[in-house]
Amino acid sequence: MNMMKKAMIWGISLAFVVTGVRAQSLDDAKKAIDAEQFAQARTMLETLVKNKPKDGENYFYLGLVYLHNEHLDSALTVFDQGIAADPKNNLNTVGKGIVDLYKEDANAAATKFAAATEKLKRRDYLELYHIGRAYIDAPEPNYQKAVEYLDQAKAKNAEDPLIPLALGDAYMGLGNASKAYVGYRDAANLDNTLTRARVQMQVITRGSHAWQEAIDGLKQIAADVPDYAPTYRELAETYHAWANTATTIDDYNARNKEAVEFYKQYMDKTDYTVDSRIRYADFLVYVKDYTELQVQAAELAQLEDVNPKILRYLGYSAYENKQYQESKDALDKLFTRMEAERIIPRDYLHLGLADIKLATQNNPTDATLFDTGIEQLKKAVAADSSIADDLNDVGKELFTAKKFLDASKVFEIAAYTPTSRNFIYDNFYLGYSAYYAVATKPVAQRGEAETALLHKADTAFGVVIEKAPTTQDAYLFRANVNNLLDDTENPKGLAEPYFLKYIEMVKEGGDAEIQKNKSKLVDAYSTIAVVSVKRGDYQKGRDLIGEILKLDPENAWAKQTLQYLEQESAASTGAATGQ
């Protein structure tokens, strides 16, 4: 017996020791499912299958428990066993269709649902109800189809409260809160002990952003029915949703702290099995409680054959807690253990970020590991372009640390993603960091790679100018880039048009803007002046230096250079006249 199975059995046994539950009937098992006590329900149903091996309905509900815990293969096996044991019962054929829905094969599911419902008797409605329920709960819900099947079920049996309850959920999915409320109200009227209907009415209240009213209502339900676990989960989710509207970090943290506390109560009132702990980990991801997530994930990761997404959570949380080697180790293991189709874009993101952090911890950067991280980031953005939004802060952190080349590689990914929220900003910083990566390197060490970087910078600033033409500094830095691209001995004046545009924009801003940018203006004038002189245009050089002296009358370089140019001009004039 492997460790995973031992853990499952231990969890079930503990639940029975604590609660003293004894399997009595299929109704008991259904109540356990409704209360989200899935380990208890599973044990009850396994006992029922053993004691009544010809009753197909027991197999069906056992399969549903497996489905809820994402054990699709186990569910399919149980449904097949149910069909073999009770061929006339259509529910297990419905179950096989539900497995198809969870595998996102809607056509195969529809075929099985049609087979299960084509010869229903006049009073048979459970098949219709469970198909409707399945279309609500599937990974890709189809709420309209759910309504169609549930309406058929209701036409056959208007007394089963689970049908209007499910209709309420379907209408919630369709965004029709008024019809959803009618469904929940009707379910509660048919069975006043149906706590879930009361809970769902508060979920509607939450949907209107009446946070405190929803919390008060859910707390009242918890006081009335303290052992009903889903109430505490909805309280947790309500506090988390409320936290996402917070305008201060303190409110955000306080509400999420309440959310986690209520989720712990939910866990205490369910089974605390491996599967329920994985759902707890899912919730911790949503509320960004990385400290608790890392604790839970590290414990679960020790179990053999545990769901590999726990390694994902361990990798994410370790990264957020600045434990980069632990993050990389977990994510490397994830990539070896998880099926390729279950790898998600953010797995590449976090592995790339961990590689980058490890590569840049010391000077110089570990270029090989850094570039490996960049490749992971590229994969992440290629799979989900919205991830480019997350790279701005990473690039700026590297830029601030004066790792300009590294920063440029990060910004380049985002700058080449036009849908990025920071597209213009990322292009500016790509140009900015690429320019400084070259400008801070000794001239003797510059080569083809540095020239390529400057061309990237020039293109990036060109994008900024095109998309946001009032960005003054884009012209200034494009000028600086082109100045480095120009031939130092025989310059073509590549930078001049950009410097002149920058000067024009600053002057248009008035005296205050001129004073604010005085040093940059001096640099612009002096650079154009030097190039002009090298190109033999001494008068233009003198005029530009005159502009510098207007801004800064005591500028020593300008005074000395102007004196030199006048001497050269005089000497040139004298030579020309023969004096």
UniProtKB/TrEMBL annotation:
Signal peptide per UniProt: 1-23
UniProt keyword Ligase present: no
Keyword list, A-Z: Repeat, Signal, TPR repeat
Protein origin, superkingdom: Bacteria
InterPro entries the UniProt entry points to: TPR-like_helical_dom_sf (IPR011990), TPR_rpt (IPR019734), Ycf3 (IPR050498)
Sequence ranges of the TPR repeats: 56-89, 522-555
PROSITE patterns assigned to the protein according to its UniProt record, in alphabetical order: TPR
Protein name: Tetratricopeptide repeat-containing protein
Organism, as annotated: Parapedobacter indicus
